[in-house]
Amino acid sequence: MQPIPFIPWVWRDPSWTEEPRQDLDDRPDTGLIGYEVEATDGGIGKVDEDNAKVPHDCLMVDTGPWIFGRKVVLPVGTVRHVDHAERKVHVDRTKEQIKNAPEYDADDHEGSRTRTGDYYSDSYRLMPPML
Predict the structure, then answer these.
(1) Cross-strand bridge partners of residue 14
(2) Pairing of strands 88-91, 36-39
């Protein structure tokens, strides 16, 4: 049996976007600005207000003091589910995996996208997501 390939740039569970909301029509990800982001082993930060500056298939996360104020970009394929009541985005990677991800370079979007996609695809081959 072949494992299901990881596609980093596609929502795995888009059900949270199905309820029509005018403010989410163009970019459902911008409706997540300010939501806390939870890795499998704890909080990593919040969806940053600059999220609209990155493509719609990733989330810009401000890690605050956790990794020296660095912002990381997570492909939407890492999102396990969104809890609107708690205002949390749950991802299926560990804090260490996210900390070790390549930095986003706004001046080299295509290069950043390739490095990030390769990094997370490799992480899924080496350590499948916890369901």
Answers:
(1) none
(2) parallel
